[in-house]
């Protein structure tokens, strides 16, 4: 397997060229024929094969010749050819191959750039299974996250405004450098109301942050106008990545390019789509202290084993673990929230009365959304000149019985 690993590693091209052309041979009675070009995700091959390690009567390996699986009539042969002409053959059953290959190399686009009706740039990420993520350059905001079946996982209000400079109500707006009204800036800071650009040459990240993933890098820099209201120079780099399994990752890197220290707060203000807020519970926050924004930020301790909802909730849970979960009983699915560098968790639902007072929010829409944010709020992050902070949020969804 080491030779195969070495070969595939050498075949990795530049970061966006993660889709590989390979030769496909339909295998019939150990004879190769019907050769044609298709697309393959090299990292996806390894990920899917790994899930078969404990299956009976399956040999997983990489061979230049010879039978690999015990039922060759059910499989395909694949040939990866390197730049110097070196090739490696291996065989996969069709059930596996369908998960890591796409037949038409001309119609598939992993990353697409477009504009909405207001002329705002958007980026669409799509994996081979059909899961997708849509990001607006206005605010660097994720507006959509869909499963491979096309089911939307994020909430967007039917009354949301998509025309700048108004922030979109829903998705994942980024609150920076201030959360809420905890400072002198506009509500939730100004990053969500600025135009970001695609970063074509970002500083490198660890390979685990992009191997097997489709991603886009965005960049926000402080402008002269920004410095008038918040006198601190910064570079905010954001990577939005969609994995083969449909999970969504956001990685923020904020660098102080000023000559003096500054402090900031940040939150990924994630609007999850839920079936019915009364049928939802959140776990992973038990026994934690929290600041209740409905009681002038008075400090309390969570007493329940799980958080359920019967009225308005607006809390900041402090010093939380790096994992929380949202259980949606009616839709029989669970959102798993993993985070790094984000010690706090915000939980918000406006309920009926406040919903009617929010102009870009439907009166009854509180029933179908819940905000659970990875955040750093209670203790702002301080950066010295030249220092960089990194925060990471990973969202995934799994079916539950």
Automatic annotation (TrEMBL):
Coiled coil ranges (UniProt) are none
Q: Name one GO molecular function term.
A: carbohydrate binding
Keyword annotations of the record: Isomerase
> In which domain of life is the source organism classified?
Eukaryota
Biological process, per Gene Ontology: carbohydrate metabolic process
**What Enzyme Commission number(s) appear in the record?**
5.1.3.15
Which reactions does this protein catalyse? alpha-D-glucose 6-phosphate = beta-D-glucose 6-phosphate
Entry-linked SUPFAM superfamilies: Galactose mutarotase-like (SSF74650)
InterPro entries attached to this UniProt entry: Aldose_1/G6P_1-epimerase (IPR008183), G6P_1-epimerase (IPR025532), Gal_mutarotase_sf_dom (IPR011013), GH-type_carb-bd (IPR014718)
Q: One GO CC term of this entry?
A: cytoplasm
Per the record, the similarity remark reads: Belongs to the glucose-6-phosphate 1-epimerase family.
Q: What is this protein called?
A: glucose-6-phosphate 1-epimerase
């Amino acid at each position: 397997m080491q030779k195969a690993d070495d070969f595939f590693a050498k075949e990795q091209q530049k970061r966006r060229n993660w889709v590989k052309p390979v030769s496909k041979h339909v295998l019939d009675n150990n004879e190769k024929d019907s050769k044609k070009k298709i697309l393959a995700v090299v990292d996806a091959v390894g990920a899917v094969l790994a899930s078969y390690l404990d299956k009976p009567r399956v040999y997983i390996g990489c061979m230049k010749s010879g039978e690999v699986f015990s039922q060759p009539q059910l499989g395909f042969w694949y040939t990866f050819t390197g730049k110097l002409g070196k090739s490696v053959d291996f065989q996969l059953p069709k059930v596996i191959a369908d998960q890591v290959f796409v037949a038409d190399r001309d119609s598939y686009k992993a990353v697409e750039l477009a504009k909405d009706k207001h002329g705002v740039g958007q980026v669409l990420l799509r994996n081979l299974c059909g899961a997708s993520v849509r990001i607006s350059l206005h605010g660097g905001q994720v507006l959509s996250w869909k499963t491979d079946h096309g089911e939307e996982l994020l909430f967007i209000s039917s009354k949301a405004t998509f025309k700048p400079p108004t922030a979109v109500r829903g998705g994942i707006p980024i609150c920076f450098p201030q959360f809420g009204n905890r400072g002198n800036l506009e509500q939730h800071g100004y990053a969500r109301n600025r135009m970001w650009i695609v970063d074509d040459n970002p500083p490198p990240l660890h390979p685990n942050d992009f191997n097997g993933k489709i991603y886009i890098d965005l960049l926000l820099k402080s402008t002269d106008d920004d410095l008038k209201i918040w006198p601190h120079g910064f570079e905010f780099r954001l990577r939005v990545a969609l994995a083969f399994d449909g999970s969504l990752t956001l990685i923020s890197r904020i660098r102080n390019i000023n000559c003096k220290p500054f402090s900031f707060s940040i939150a990924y203000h994630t609007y999850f789509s839920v079936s019915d807020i009364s049928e939802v519970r959140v776990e992973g926050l038990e026994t934690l202290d929290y600041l209740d924004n409905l009681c002038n930020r008075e400090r309390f301790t969570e007493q329940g084993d799980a958080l359920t909802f019967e009225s308005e909730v607006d809390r900041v849970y402090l010093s939380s673990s790096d994992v929380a979960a949202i259980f949606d009983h009616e839709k029989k699915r669970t959102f798993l929230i993993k985070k790094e560098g984000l010690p706090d968790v915000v939980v918000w639902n406006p309920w009926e009365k406040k919903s009617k007072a929010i102009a870009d929010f439907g009166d009854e829409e509180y029933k179908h959304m819940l905000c659970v944010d990875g955040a750093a709020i209670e203790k702002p992050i301080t950066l010295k000149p030249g220092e960089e902070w990194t925060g990471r949020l990973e969202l995934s969804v799994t079916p539950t019985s």
